[in-house]
Amino acid sequence: MSQIRYDRLRDAHVIIAPERLHRPDCNIQMKERRKEKKVCPFCEGNEAMTPPEIFAKRSFESFANETGWQTRVVPNLFKALQIETPHEHHFGLFEHWEGFGAHEVIIDTPEHHTSMSQWSEANVVAWLQT
């Protein structure tokens, strides 16, 4: 389970999430990812490969978890935080809490391999509204 730890020296909180080490691309360099021709769960038409959407900006003719969206929000399968109620722990000077909160993926656009500078005005507006 993830933890939120307080660093007294830096006066900052950090998230420790060992579960994220199990992501399928965790140890793959970006150059190698581009070479691989895997099916991408975030591409339009592959909505069944992600958990059900939490929110989407879409056209009126389209339905949830189907094509026709401008932006989508889905739960992260390899989340850093849990929705369950946290417990606080103290060990001497050290404090930590179980990681509490939602961790979601925002899929910016159906053409998510394009840079933001290439987006249409409608894509930018949909992204800002998400």
Structure description:
With 130 residues, the chain is an alpha+beta fold. It has one domain (3-129): HIT family, subunit A (2-Layer Sandwich). The chain is 12% helix and 26% strand. The chain has helices at 30-35, 121-129, and strands spanning 3-7, 12-16, 55-58, 69-75, 88-91, 94-98, 104-107. The strands form 2 sheets. Strands 2-1-6-5 form a 4-stranded antiparallel beta sheet, with no helix packed on it. It has a 3-stranded antiparallel beta sheet with strand order 3-4-7, covered by helices on one side. It starts with a strand and ends with a helix.
- State the helical fraction: 10-25%
Number of strands: 7
CATH level-3 fold name: HIT family, subunit A
Mean pLDDT: 82
Overall shape: it is elongated
Q: Summarize the helix and strand pattern as letters.
A: EEHEEEEEH
Our count of helices gives 2
For the record, the count of structural domains works out to 1
